[in-house]
Design a protein that fits this description.
mainly alpha, 0% strand, 8 helices
């Protein structure tokens, strides 16, 4: 694979999934490696939080995150893998202990839950499975 444009924008998992769905649904049927990569990647992405996201929820979430002075990559990580704990935020946001107060971390968690309510269900399912 070669890099066509090194300055192109980064894509969220949601955008990648939608693009691959368009490729899959196009009338032109792809064969070989592209078909396999498309199929396997779609199969993976359909089991991640991006499958439940909408363009509107992403845009609204990004608007709410503007107040926290996060860089583009940090926002992308938050969108791709919405955190449900303060620890996950620490792992995603560089120097979060210095940059964010405990209240701000809680606000970010609430923003994630407001825009991506499905993440709470997946956390509850994981907890239930661990208890069994």
């Amino acid at each position: 694979m070669e890099i066509v444009n090194a300055n192109s924008a980064t894509l969220s998992n949601f955008e990648v999934m939608k693009h691959l769905q368009r490729i899959k649904d196009s009338r032109k049927k792809h064969k070989g490696q592209l078909a396999t990569i498309t199929y396997e990647t779609l199969r993976y992405l359909e089991n991640t939080p991006c499958a439940q996201q909408t363009p509107e929820s992403i845009v609204e979430c990004l608007k709410d995150l503007e107040a926290f002075n996060l860089n583009k990559n940090e926002k992308l990580m938050l969108i791709n893998s919405p955190p449900t704990t303060a620890l996950e935020i620490q792992l995603m946001i560089e120097e979060s202990e210095e940059r964010l107060s405990e209240e701000q971390v809680e606000q970010i968690l609430q923003i994630m839950l407001r825009h991506f309510p499905h993440i709470q269900k997946s956390v509850e399912n994981d907890t239930t499975q661990e208890q069994e």
